[in-house]
Each structure stands twice: as structure tokens, then as C-alpha cells.
């Protein structure tokens, strides 16, 4: 029997590409062949990754070479354009493979790219969604479109009123992903997620792979009877995750928390925080930067996993993207959760209230997080005492569980191998 042959399609965002490529690596280690597909622009960020006998890259244009889009070209239009370009590319890849007498065993694609699943069904090829957020997020979205929409909407309007969803911890308004917030300009992104969930419900052959592990979300992974979630995380390789904290409020770090490493985009370092790349800092901004550099190190990029793995790191201030959250868990580092939007709000709730491995910042009456608040949270994590020790103990416990899950014969390893065996046997 020929070795399995997989097509992986990654939406062109760093939070999609990293876990998708790490899945590719795990498939390659089983002896399978992998074709990895993303946009040409995204592939350039993977320049250190080389093709091999069993790893092929098949990129497609995202239109960047056609020049800048019109000023009124919306994100929604961009997504529609991406769907069209990606769908056509996947069709061409499938046809080219068949012309060589080869067939794909399964097509895996990252969440929101539901159009890939549609193409797979047209060719009668099994498909699987790689969900790059926690199982908790998938359930919130699932329940929103299955009878709990009003409850979740009311909850987001009234932060003091928690809602209980099956298999989930109580949720308040500050825990709800912003895609579900009434009036959100990114509401259309939820329609893509809704379409994805509906297609999964209607396709008994579809697989749902979740970037998590059983010990982290055991109840959530088993809460939906009609959909089987397969925990195949962790995907934590020291490749190219950016931003320990990509935040512009440099004054927040002028606090007695000890030495720090702050990873921030180069343009923000140059312009003092406005993000336009211009070197027209005010005197206050220049003074702030000088003072910061006396206390810590500011860099435009780092290997995040390598930093988090270092024993001198006592705390991770994070915006709570799922990749970063999971990496901190795997490395056993307590967190100060500083969420901004999307799934980050829910992830912050998991960090503080469920796993108890960190503290979440709170804004003032205007929603602004002040320096004193960050200092308070850092002292809670780093300052010793019963709560600090409890967070460190919980972080150590989850770190050990993650390593157990990911090792040869661990639950994540077994889950992935069982899925591959099912696919190969038909």
C-alpha cells in the first residue's frame, strides 16, 4: 500500500501557518507525504523551511503583485477574494496530482477556510478542519448557532450576568469572543465560522482536529455529541512565533517588576508607538524608550518558545492568542493576560479562572489598562505568597501533562495515529 498523501491548506495568517506547518511535520514523521499550500506572500515568511522528497510547497497568488488594493477595499472583500483564489488553487493542485496518478488521502485546512472543504467534497476527498483555537471557543460558537445565541448576546451586553453553556465554565460578557459582540465590525468573520460548523454537522466524514490536549480541555472536548473533536496538540516548535507583547503602551513597563524582554514590531520601536514608521517621536516618547532600555531589552523578534523555555523567565505578559497561550502552558510559565479581541478574551478567562495559571488585567472606567494595574498583576504572579505559588504549581502540572500528551505513545500522539489509520483504511 502506498504511503498516505496529505494536502494541508493554511489560511495566510501567522496564527494559522504555524500550527498547520507543525501538523505537517508530525504527518511527515509517520512516513506520509505532504503538500503544503498557502499564499506566496505567506510562504516567504517560511523561507527557512526547505522542501524535501515528501514535503512539497504549492503556493498561490494573494494578489499582492497586482499592486495595492483600492482604499475602500474592505476586509470582507479581501476574504471573498481569498476564497476565490484559494479554491481555484486547490482545484488545480488536486487535478495536477490526479494527472500524475496520485490521490490525496485527506485534505486538512485551517478554520475559516470552509471553501476548501467544499472543494474536497466536490472531488470526494475526505477533509479535516484544523481548529487553531481552544475547544472552548468552538463550543461557544457551536452553542451560539444552536439555541444559545440570545443568551450569549445578552451576556455580552451585561458583563455582570454570567451564562452557563453545556460543558463550559460560566461566561461573562468580558469572556465572549468579540466576533459575537453586537455591532462588531468583524461580525462577518463569524459567518465563516458558522458556515464551517454547519458543514461539519452535515458531513459525517469530516474530521475536527483541535490544537489542544486532553488534560487541558477534557470536558470541552467531549461536550458535543454530534461532533467528535480530536485533540492532536500540542504544536509547539521553536519556529517563528512573534510578539511576546506587541503593545504600544511603553509606559506600562515603567514598573518595579524586574528585568524584562519586550518583543515589539520594528516600526513601533522606530516611531515610538504610533505605528506609522516615522521617526518623529516626542520628547516624552524618547525619554520613555531610554528609561525602558535601562530596565530591560526591547527587540523586534525572538524565538518565543526558546525564551519561554528559559528558566529565568518568571512571567509572560501576553495578549492571549491561542498559540502563545498554549506555548506558555507547555513551558510552564505563569501569565499576565492582556487580551484585546477575538478569542483572546476567552483565552484570558481560561488562564485566570479555569486553569489558574495567571492573572487578567482590568481596565478603568474607560476600558484603559493603566500602569498601576499591570504592576499589580505582575506582583501577584512574581511576588510570592499563596496565590503566586498556586499559579506556579498549576503551571508545572499542566506543563507535565502537555509533555506526557505529546510524547511517543501519549494521548495526542495516539489520537493522531488513530485518525491516520482510520483515513488510510477508508
Automatic annotation (TrEMBL):
The record, for CDD domains, names:
GT1_Gtf-like
Q: Could you say which EC number(s) this protein's record lists?
A: 2.4.1.-
- Recorded GO terms, molecular function? quercetin 3-O-glucosyltransferase activity; quercetin 7-O-glucosyltransferase activity
Return the GO cellular component terms, semicolon-separated.
Answer: cytoplasm
The protein's matches in Pfam families, at most eight in alphabetical order, are given as:
UDPGT (PF00201)
Q: Which UniProt keywords apply?
A: Glycosyltransferase, Transferase
Q: Does the keyword Transferase apply?
A: yes
Q: What class of enzyme is it?
A: transferase
Q: Family assignment?
A: Belongs to the UDP-glycosyltransferase family.
Q: What's the protein here called?
A: Glycosyltransferase
Q: What species is this protein from?
A: Eucalyptus grandis (Flooded gum)
Q: What is the lineage of its organism?
A: Eukaryota, Viridiplantae, Streptophyta, Embryophyta, Tracheophyta
Amino acid at each position: 500500500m502506498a504511503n498516505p498523501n496529505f494536502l494541508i491548506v493554511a489560511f495566510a495568517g501567522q496564527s494559522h501557518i504555524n500550527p498547520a506547518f507543525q501538523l505537517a511535520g508530525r504527518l511527515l514523521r509517520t512516513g506520509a507525504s505532504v503538500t503544503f499550500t498557502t499564499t506566496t506572500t505567506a510562504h516567504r515568511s517560511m523561507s527557512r523551511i526547505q522542501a524535501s522528497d515528501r514535503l512539497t510547497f504549492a503556493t498561490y497568488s494573494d494578489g499582492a503583485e497586482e499592486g495595492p488594493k483600492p482604499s475602500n477595499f474592505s476586509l470582507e472583500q479581501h476574504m471573498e477574494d481569498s476564497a476565490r483564489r484559494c479554491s481555484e488553487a486547490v482545484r488545480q493542485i488536486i487535478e495536477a496530482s490526479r494527472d500524475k496518478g496520485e490521490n490525496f488521502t485527506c485534505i486538512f485546512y485551517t478554520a475559516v477556510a470552509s471553501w476548501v472543504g467544499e472543494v474536497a467534497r466536490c472531488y470526494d476527498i475526505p477533509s479535516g478542519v484544523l481548529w487553531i483555537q481552544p475547544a472552548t471557543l468552538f463550543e461557544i460558537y457551536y452553542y451560539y448557532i444552536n439555541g444559545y445565541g440570545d443568551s450569549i448576546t445578552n451576556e455580552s451586553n451585561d458583563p455582570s450576568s454570567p451564562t452557563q453553556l453545556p460543558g463550559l465554565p460560566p461566561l461573562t460578557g468580558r469572556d465572549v469572543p468579540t466576533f459575537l459582540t453586537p455591532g462588531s465590525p468583524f461580525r462577518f468573520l463569524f459567518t465563516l465560522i458558522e458556515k464551517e460548523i454547519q458543514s461539519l454537522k452535515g458531513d459525517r466524514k469530516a474530521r475536527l482536529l483541535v490544537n489542544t490536549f486532553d488534560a487541558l480541555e477534557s470536558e470541552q472536548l467531549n461536550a458535543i455529541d454530534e461532533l467528535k473533536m480530536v485533540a492532536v496538540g500540542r504544536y509547539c516548535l521553536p519556529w517563528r512565533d512573534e510578539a511576546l507583547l506587541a503593545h504600544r503602551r511603553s509606559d506600562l513597563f515603567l514598573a518595579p517588576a524586574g528585568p524584562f524582554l519586550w518583543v515589539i514590531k520594528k516600526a513601533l520601536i522606530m516611531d515610538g508607538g504610533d505605528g506609522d514608521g516615522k521617526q518623529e517621536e516626542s520628547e516624552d516618547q524618547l525619554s520613555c524608550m531610554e528609561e525602558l532600555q535601562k530596565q530591560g531589552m526591547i527587540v523586534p523578534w525572538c524565538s518565543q518558545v526558546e525564551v519561554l523555555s528559559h528558566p529565568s523567565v518568571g512571567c509572560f505578559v501576553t495578549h492571549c492568542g491561542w498559540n502563545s497561550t498554549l506555548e506558555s502552558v507547555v513551558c510552564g510559565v505563569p501569565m499576565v493576560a492582556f487580551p484585546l479581541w477575538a478569542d483572546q478574551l476567552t483565552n484570558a478567562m481560561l488562564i485566570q479562572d479555569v486553569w489558574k495559571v495567571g492573572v487578567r488585567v482590568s481596565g478603568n472606567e474607560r476600558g484603559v489598562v493603566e500602569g498601576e494595574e499591570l504592576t499589580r498583576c505582575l506582583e501577584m504572579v512574581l511576588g510570592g505568597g499563596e496565590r503566586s505559588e498556586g499559579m506556579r504549581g498549576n503551571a508545572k502540572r499542566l506543563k507535565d501533562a502537555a509533555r506526557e500528551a505529546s510524547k511517543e505513545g501519549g494521548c495526542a500522539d495516539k489520537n493522531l495515529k488513530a485518525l491516520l489509520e482510520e483515513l488510510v483504511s477508508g
